[in-house]
Design goal:
The chain has about 375 residues and is of the alpha+beta class. It has twelve helices and eleven strands. The longest helix has about 35 residues, at about 280-315.
Length: about 375
């Protein structure tokens, strides 16, 4: 097996799971000629180009959806603003690009490469919040008190620039005093004062270092796969169990999640005091479809990762490796059924059997 085979496996898995791995010529042509209409640049857009906005993501991320800006206030609270790329300004509802995004509903990240929800010309360029570029965005502007509670918030549209593209690893090392500031921060004194919002999280982790990361991992493992749901105005909020909040809506990644693009359209219509762009029935259908497609995307990612692992180890069959066991799932075994016994008995769990199974899987 060679790398081109892995790419073909990924494309085949996409198709087998009802996901389109390539963009049609119509989608690519439309993406190339998309432009912001007059309404996209009309009134209500604030000029926030003077603020020190920055992005933070993985080193190799190209589809940047968010920028952040923060300042410490005299009363000890923090003003924190998050700008989300205004993808809707270019991707208009009902077009070929939007139709493809609505079908796949998500970008799929496989070991063979990324299958983006939007054409790379958009998601990696024109609708991405790239360093040194000015973009339209939807901004949530918050005041956060000393305890980390949001005491005030407002939403609006704005023009914003990305002054620095930062990466998680280098910023974390800087905040923990294990490395000098990243170059983008080192060359800008204003940016060195920006991560004030990180102080709260750093303090909380210092107060409970033993449980901070373990608790997060345990919650993620318990959650399993989630489901999208459309909430009518008169219904009680369903909430988000993992985040422990009552009011929640996906909204911060419109370049790679269709449900976030839908939320952005609803929000912009509200800000402009316009009619909602979707009916309740349409929102219900979108929520169900996005749930199904994201489950399929996860299946594709897992299968391609297993294929990549098989390729990596195909010439090492029979070798023994040290391993760390992160968990074990007990699945009852069914004992043989005799002709005189129509009821199958299950074999109870036993640590020795689990140990044997783990050892066998490691040495294969």
């Amino acid at each position: 097996m060679d790398p081109p085979d892995l790419a073909q496996i990924a494309a085949d898995e996409m198709r087998a799971n009802g996901l389109e791995p390539v963009f049609t010529p119509e989608v690519l042509h439309e993406a190339e000629h998309l432009s912001q209409d007059g309404a996209a640049r009309s009134g209500g857009i604030r000029d926030l180009r003077g603020r020190q906005w920055f992005s933070i993501d993985n080193d190799d991320t190209l589809d940047l959806d968010q920028l952040t800006w923060a300042e410490a206030l005299p009363d000890g609270s923090v003003r924190l603003a998050v700008a989300v790329a205004d993808v809707d300004a270019l991707v208009h509802r009902g077009g070929s690009v939007d139709t493809h995004a609505a079908a796949n509903t998500t970008s799929v990240y496989t070991a063979a490469g990324v299958f983006p929800m939007l054409p790379p010309l958009l998601s990696n360029d024109r609708t991405s919040l790239h360093e040194g570029e000015e973009r339209l965005a939807v901004v949530v502007d918050m005041k956060v008190d000393r305890e980390g509670s949001v005491t005030d918030a407002q939403l609006y549209r704005a023009a914003v620039p990305n002054h620095a593209k930062l990466a998680y690893d280098s910023v974390a090392a800087w905040l923990e005093l294990q490395a000098p500031p990243p170059p983008a921060i080192a060359r800008d004194a204003a940016l060195q004062a920006q991560p004030v919002f990180a102080r709260f999280l750093t303090a909380r982790r210092a107060a409970e270092p033993s449980g901070f990361e373990d608790l997060s991992l345990a919650v993620v493992k318990l959650l399993g796969s989630g489901a999208y749901a459309a909430a009518p105005p008169d219904a009680p909020p369903a909430g988000h169990f993992g985040l422990a909040v009552n009011d929640y809506a996906h909204s911060t990644a419109p370049n790679r999640r269709f449900v976030d693009l839908v939320t952005q359209r609803l929000l912009k219509a509200t800000l402009a005091q316009q009619a909602m762009p979707y009916s309740m029935a349409e929102l219900d259908a979108i929520a169900q479809h996005c749930t199904i497609q994201e489950d399929k995307a996860s299946t594709v990612e897992r299968r391609v990762l297993k294929a990549a692992a098989a390729y990596l180890l195909h010439d090492r069959i029979g070798e023994r490796f040290d391993a760390i066991v992160t968990g074990a799932t007990y699945r009852p075994k069914v004992s043989p059924v005799s002709a005189s016994n129509s009821v199958a008995a299950t074999v109870p769990p036993h640590h020795s059997r689990i140990t044997e199974a783990i050892a066998a899987s490691v040495t294969r």
